[in-house]
Amino acid sequence: MIRTRIAPSPTGKDVHIGSVATALMNYAWAKKNNGKFIIRIEDTDQSRLVPGGEKKMLTTLQELGIIADESPLIGGPFAPYRQSERLDIYKKYAQELVEKGKAYYCTCTLERLTEMRAKQQAEKKVPKYDRFCLSRQDEVKKQIEEGMKYVVRLLIPETEIVFTDLIRGEVRFQSSNLDDQVLLKSDGFPTYHLGVVVDDHLMEITHVMRGEEWLPSTPKHIILYDAFGWEKPFFGHVSLLRNPDKSKLSKRKNPVWASEYIEKGIFPEALLNYLALMGWSHPEGKDIFDLDEYIRVFDIKDVQTEKLKSKVVEYIGGEYNEKVIEMTIPLVRERMKKLSEYIPLTEFLFKAPDAYEIPLEKYKDTLTKVIAKLESIDAFNSLKIGEAMVDVAKESGLKNSEFFQMLRVAITGKKISPPLNESMEILGKEECIKRIKTV
């Protein structure tokens, strides 16, 4: 079963508008797949909690129709899981990691850590814990028995961490760039990293879709999953909401709390409609739709398309039609290794070829038959195009390989291109026929 979640922290006066956008995506993916959507309050940083913040967040989400399917046994149908109520669980799993040799105790004082980092910075090194306590665990354990405060640190292995992000594709990190992260703090509360992995595992979360600011944390989470021997969820990191000028939303410049929009008279349905279109496009190009329709048509792969489209548009400038670019992304995203490859792969979709990689003169009669067949297609889509062209290939007496290479060159100018039928659908019937007549 698909299980998704959001895990906001009540460190503001309400739920952040960006968190609502992420919640909407998680909610839709669970509902689309007959799964479960969960709300978990990450309140382990007690010093930053805002009184009343949690209640306001949950009230706003409820007003927007984003309601959890599952709650703890106590607290009622809208009660979320709270990390502050699960401290014994995190301590147990931190201890398990120490026993496995995947984590270790550290009793370093704040003064020593401050001095260590200052020295590293003076030497122009990346500030990281120097593993002073790792080699003296027997002594450290005695200090702990005598009442000294301690933390539990993750022992980062020497390895390359590779995972496939649902939105960004393959991502690689070198563990040499990672610090031995604190997992359990001296006050007994877990850090985000331990809490999120333990909770996502125990709650059987299958898809972790969150903001891109958490991408650098994912390697640590993968190391933790491997250390426990647990199956990893799918990860997807979505772009942050930004202003039209690409700047980040700022509390000083923008309304950032979701309730502020509702209080201004914006209907919840309109707000969700707007947020749904941030980083995603309706497959039918619609701008107005309700939550039920969004759930029905939403697909994670379309978020990936929108992300890559934005990068391509930014790279190549405003000379090319953005709608066409969006249509091309599914055809080229697996073929592209860098943005500079986009135009060489797709230029034929924006302008007709002025040269052909093979001579086409001997195929004039066959191309005339192709034109007649294309003209007879009512629904000009890739499936109908493919069926029609197979028929022409049979009538022409040419081998399929020769026929489709000839047709590909007539349309694109090249022997190798993105999928031909889909490319012809993007170009449209009139443009395809015009290009063949020009040969």
Textual characterization of the structure:
This protein is mainly α and 439 residues long. It has four domains: 108 residues, HUPs (Rossmann fold, 3-Layer(aba) Sandwich); 146 residues, Glutamyl-tRNA Synthetase, Domain 3 (Glutamyl-tRNA Synthetase, domain 3), CATH 3.90.800.10; 52 residues, no CATH class; 87 residues, Orthogonal Bundle (Arc Repressor Mutant, subunit A). Helices cover 45% and strands 10% of the residues. The strands form four sheets. Strands 1-2-3 form a three-stranded parallel beta sheet, with helices on one face. A three-stranded antiparallel beta sheet has the order 4-5-8. A two-stranded antiparallel ribbon has the order 6-7. Strand 1, helix 1 and strand 2 form a beta-alpha-beta unit. The protein is elongated, with a radius of gyration of 28 Å.
The CATH class of the largest domain:
Alpha Beta
Number of strands: 10
**Separation, N- and C-terminal Cα atoms:** 54 Å
Oligomer: single chain
Q: How many structural units, i.e. domains?
A: 4
List the total number of helices.
18
The description of the largest β-sheet is: 3 strands, parallel
Strand order of the largest sheet: 1-2-3
Radius of gyration: 28 Å
Uncertain spans, ≥5 residues at pLDDT below 50? Answer: none
Percent of residues in helical segments? 40-55%
CATH superfamily of the largest domain: Glutamyl-tRNA Synthetase, Domain 3
Please identify, by name, the CATH architecture of the largest domain. Answer: Alpha-Beta Complex
H/E series = EHEHEHEHHEEEEHEHEHHHHHHHHHHH
Q: Tell me the CATH topology of the largest domain.
A: Glutamyl-tRNA Synthetase, domain 3
What general outline do the C-alpha atoms trace? elongated
